[in-house]
């Protein structure tokens, strides 16, 4: 469903984990580090998100973004003229969308990159969602052009880019374009229904993750647990700083290329000495 | 008693209208030729005389003779009315009588018939068989340790064949003739059987040919003494004998007939018949013939009595009309024919009644299967079932085995037993037969039919098996219990099928996919290659089309939306209604209490007739609000996949670890952990979550499980709610990160991250060792 493409400059989805590792090293204060480094987006109190290839069919996405806490300042970029989408946008409550721009890759990548840099101010965005653009030829090819333009526009390092593709086989085409996450909605549908066939409890767990009621947070490794095993850490970590029950479900450890890799439910006897961070499940399902 | 009256009725009525019945009241005396005094024939005739006595005016007068030969001579000369005669001797006499006595002129030398009969003598009377009564087999006794594979050297030492004039002697003569010997050229031992045994013990006699009933006490004693062994009649001799003298039949001396006999020995059997002779000059004497008919009726009655009565069991009487020899040229007496006809009619009626009963039973079974809508009950579905051609092949082989055996077991040395016939018919049906196995035209016709049918059925069987192996799917494996059903499948949901067939708990579950005609052929071909997946081409909005899926037994039903069809495809809501109705009509789902169709229904009635329904997941979209499905909330879960995809994007933007975490949790990969649930065991019930968690984490093993929480029943320990288990399942509550003091309740499931479901079950089971003591 998801793949993480590594950008030329190494600015990928692993950035947050690198921050977490730094946090532990600097402070060694688990609770404070957790609060600071919980994987909520960094930056100003109201993050800025951009959705590219937006059309009125994706009104639901706008509502979902507006429901996020804190609510992001949302910029939409779509192929249709502003007048065409105005009725759809007018149906949304005030403040859901900050700005709508008409723009697409049909004018060329360079022009789009200039538009992204100069007009839409993409380098300042915290997260960018690239939706599939239907009805303009090969859908995922357009998304790839958009990602190229984003990369050129954000020379210093692109923000967190999430691309939704139609064809999972097109995933590898996004390699080297600075895309953090490639999402295949068809697989999400299949996975949810398949898990519902296996176990309704697992299915509800996933719904809880999607709704945000359950969250996976990255916590630094407390120094007192460094010499211990994953099982012992699980027994040790029971509540967060506020006394709410939590569950340690995994850890980050050096993987290939020195990039920290997520280990979900590792062997109970695995030592934590090389772990860069802990993965903790917080919140309540229902 | 009734049966006997029914049998005799036509005979007696016929006799009343005979002219000869004018002599009614006079005694009818039947001169019955038996055999040597104290022999088997003598005992039987005396018993018959006793049985007939007191029944009507017929009296049987036994007359002692030297055996079959003398009996025949006396019958032909008119000295006897009836006699017991070995059938080969009787048939030879009949054949001699059929021969033209004047042919070749008086100067032509004559002779060669058994018992030195001449055509002139045999032509004096007309012979008729009343019944065959006993059976005897030729026993080849050879002094130990000699064994004779053929009869080439049988004359190197003395040979005993029986007394001259007995049927046994005549039989031995033709057997030796079939082996290329004449009695005159062989060193025969002339004496009684007892004397021959003594001579054998002195090593003066090598071989004894004796025609006696199977299991005869004398033979048993000889074998037990170790003096001699039984040898088979060589196959060549058997065949030549049957070809030249078809009055015998090939019969085996079966294993166990004598102590120590461990192999079946081929030999020939010959029956003894009650033979009646009517002098030629009295063939038109109706009064005489009427008396004869009464006499025959009385004798048949007496023979039946000997056959049934325990008192006469030692005589071994078994009345038969036909089928006791390869060919039976002597006609049956008309009274015996009436008996035979009525018995045959009774047998046919019984067979017909049995066939009708079987047909009725099959019809009722078929009707019951169709009423219960058992899948695979239709003819079309049976075409792809390999068991059908296999069963048909077995039927063809079995039927042809019986037919061929009944046709040839008396005359064909290779088809002596049903076992032989079964093996030969197998070779025919599989095309591996040899051309000289069958002899008679009818048997060859049956063999040819068995070959053609067998090869055709084998081709069918092979084709169905090939089809199974090629497609990796078969009706045999289309399980309809705890199966998964996908309704309204569309192309972009192929990943769902891949996931359901990836390593994980659903991999072994039967998968039934209902597709519409609009689904491209290439996608169907892709589906056809998936193991244990059955494709159904039907309309998912029609409950009758879903009946064969046995939905109440399904583990899950997935109803997919119409995707990009823009409302032109099937509607999920209508499909959900069809699922409900299909379950209501299914016997398992509550078909017996299904509500009848009417103009109105009360809420009480609707609640009473609620069927058992499977947990059903329906893919919905923005266009269908969740409230649309609220009437089905007890068993149906609407899944708005588009909204969930939007939420996924939001979470992926907000939480940078979310994408990877979610991806790992949902992928059924070998080296990955997914979320599973397992029932909480009794030793964990009532324990606080902190202790439960600790117990699970402390289980040692290759992999571990990370306990996440509890999946709690709505009514812990309560009854299953109305609507069945799906209602109970959907009313559960997921508790992740429970409070440390949260107690585990009865019916709770433990939710955990684990590599696979089996691992979690194992860990939960092993937690007994690490669990805290109750209280």
TrEMBL record, chain B:
<dbReference type="InterPro" id="IPR011852">
    <property type="entry name" value="TRAP_TAXI"/>
</dbReference>
<feature type="transmembrane region" description="Helical">
    <location>
        <begin position="386"/>
        <end position="407"/>
    </location>
</feature>
<keyword id="KW-0812">Transmembrane</keyword>
<keyword id="KW-0472">Membrane</keyword>
<feature type="transmembrane region" description="Helical">
    <location>
        <begin position="445"/>
        <end position="470"/>
    </location>
</feature>
<keyword id="KW-1133">Transmembrane helix</keyword>
<protein>
    <recommendedName>
        <fullName>RCK N-terminal domain-containing protein</fullName>
    </recommendedName>
</protein>
<dbReference type="Pfam" id="PF16868">
    <property type="entry name" value="NMT1_3"/>
</dbReference>
<keyword id="KW-0732">Signal</keyword>
<feature type="signal peptide">
    <location>
        <begin position="1"/>
        <end position="24"/>
    </location>
</feature>
<feature type="transmembrane region" description="Helical">
    <location>
        <begin position="347"/>
        <end position="365"/>
    </location>
</feature>
